[in-house]
């Protein structure tokens, strides 16, 4: 990554020079030492909130991994190292915007006001879960905050976001859809479908690729010959940007500009956010089998939370004492939520018939009657 802040104007087209046809630049506002290019400045309240939410997400992730290791939840996918993209994006979306996440953007729901108890209940899959325990853990969704669950299949959320954006356009709504994908997903057919459609139908969509350099154990250079991911977007005729995805300010500015353009008829934007997954792909993965400790250590130096910490300390938004108090408060908040949620019973057994048809079909009615005759389910604890 270059240390020099550089922004690519939204109107920029492919550079005319044939010597560097693949250069899409790198948008970066926050330097490693915590100094900020003033053109990226955010309201202090937004910065403080982003810092708190990033802190909270890291603590939630650590707690959930622990619960999985203790056998109290079945699975979890952590976001460590990639917090800046979802948290900055969550601060830029409007109430009516829709989010179609990939693997590591569930926390946008929390930024938009989704309850922590319901969030944790999704991981337990019990009766506190708005999805009634029907999804894999870490596949959150919440209608109240306009967020759709991601599919375990890699890629489909991008055409879904484009479709939702097209509907918004047809209904003349002043809102936008955001679709996320990983670097691996850009080699899937769904990416091609989504980008082609988004550009041609000029839909109010922002497609964000979190390039964390790995698709589980496959490094980016092994799954694409493209020099950057952002350049792919240019080929489809979509304004495309490559940004420092560990820089909250670069993410916030680029996403905000893209959302504003989308809402005002400017069409789609594609953003490649360079970042790194510090932890395992999920609790089912052991990354020491395929990547070096040295590589992880190198990326730890670019940790998005540490970089933001330097900024909030230097600008009087936080100090060590307040930070320690905030951490204690967040740890207690998460622990209390886990205690409340873990005590909840499983979803009602009969609820498995709900939400499929407005009127249950004859065979479902037959099965419901059969289930009602069975003895109650044994307690799970
Ligand atoms: C269609 C499909 N192929 C393969 C998989 C197995 N799989 C699950 S996650 C993943 C890697 C995805 O990588 P990327 O899109 O870069 O996202 P990241 O996990 O790095 O955030 C793969 C290959 C899948 N779930 N779906």
Structural write-up:
This protein is of the alpha/beta class and 381 residues long. It folds into two domains: 38-347, Thiamin diphosphate (ThDP)-binding fold, Pyr/PP domains (Rossmann fold); 348-381, no CATH class. It contains 13 helices and seven strands. The chain has helices spanning 44-69, 84-92, 108-111, 116-124, 157-170, 189-200, 220-223, 230-235, 248-263, 293-300, 304-314, 320-342, 362-373; strands at 98-100, 177-182, 205-211, 214-215, 218-219, 240-244, 269-274. The strands form two sheets. The chain has a five-stranded parallel sheet with strand order 1-2-3-7-6, with helices on both faces. The chain has a two-stranded antiparallel sheet with strand order 4-5. Helix 1 (44-69) crosses helix 12 (320-342).
User: Judging from the principal axes of the Cα atoms, what is the shape?
Assistant: globular
Number of domains: 2
What's the rounded overall pLDDT mean?
93
Distance between the termini: 50 Å
Q: Numbering strands along the chain, what is their spatial order in the largest sheet?
A: 1-2-3-7-6
- Following the backbone from N to C, one meets helices and strands in this order, namely HHEHHHEHEEEHHEHEHHHH
Per CATH, the class of the largest domain reads Alpha Beta
């Amino acid at each position: 990554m270059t240390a020099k802040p550089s922004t690519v104007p939204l109107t920029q087209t492919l550079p005319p020079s044939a010597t560097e046809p693949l250069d899409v630049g790198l948008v970066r506002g926050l330097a490693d030492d915590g100094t900020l290019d003033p053109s990226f400045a955010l309201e202090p309240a937004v910065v403080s909130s982003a810092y708190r939410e990033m802190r909270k997400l890291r603590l939630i992730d650590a707690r959930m991994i622990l619960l999985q290791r203790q056998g109290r939840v079945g699975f979890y996918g952590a976001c460590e190292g990639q917090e800046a993209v979802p948290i900055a994006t969550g601060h830029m979306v409007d109430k009516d915007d829709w989010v179609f996440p990939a693997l590591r953007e569930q926390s946008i729901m929390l930024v938009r006001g989704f309850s922590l108890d319901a969030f944790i209940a999704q991981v337990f899959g019990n009766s506190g879960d708005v999805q009634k325990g029907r999804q894999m853990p870490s596949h959150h969704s919440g209608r109240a905050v306009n967020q759709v669950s991601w599919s375990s299949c890699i890629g489909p959320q991008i055409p879904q976001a484009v479709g939702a954006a097209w509907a918004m356009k047809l209904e003349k709504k002043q809102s936008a859809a955001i679709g996320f994908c990983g670097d691996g997903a850009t080699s899937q057919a769904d990416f091609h479908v989504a980008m082609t459609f988004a550009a041609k139908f000029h839909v109010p969509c922002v497609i964000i690729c979190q390039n964390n350099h790995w698709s589980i154990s496959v490094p980016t250079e092994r799954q694409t010959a493209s020099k950057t991911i952002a350049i792919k977007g240019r080929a489809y005729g979509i304004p495309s940007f490559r940004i420092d995805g560990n820089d909250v300010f670069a993410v916030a500015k680029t996403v905000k500009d893209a959302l504003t353009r989308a809402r005002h008829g400017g069409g789609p934007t594609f953003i490649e956010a360079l970042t790194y997954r510090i932890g395992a792909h999920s609790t089912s993965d052991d990354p020491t089998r395929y990547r070096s400790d040295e590589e992880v250590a190198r990326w730890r130096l670019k940790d998005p939370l540490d970089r933001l910490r330097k900024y909030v300390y230097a600008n009087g938004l936080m100090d060590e004492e307040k930070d320690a108090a905030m951490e204690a408060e967040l740890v207690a908040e998460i622990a209390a939520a886990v205690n409340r949620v873990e005590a909840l019973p499983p979803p009602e057994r009969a609820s498995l018939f709900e939400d499929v048809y407005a009127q249950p079909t004859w065979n479902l009615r037959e099965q419901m009657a059969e289930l009602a005759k069975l003895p109650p389910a044994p307690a799970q604890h």
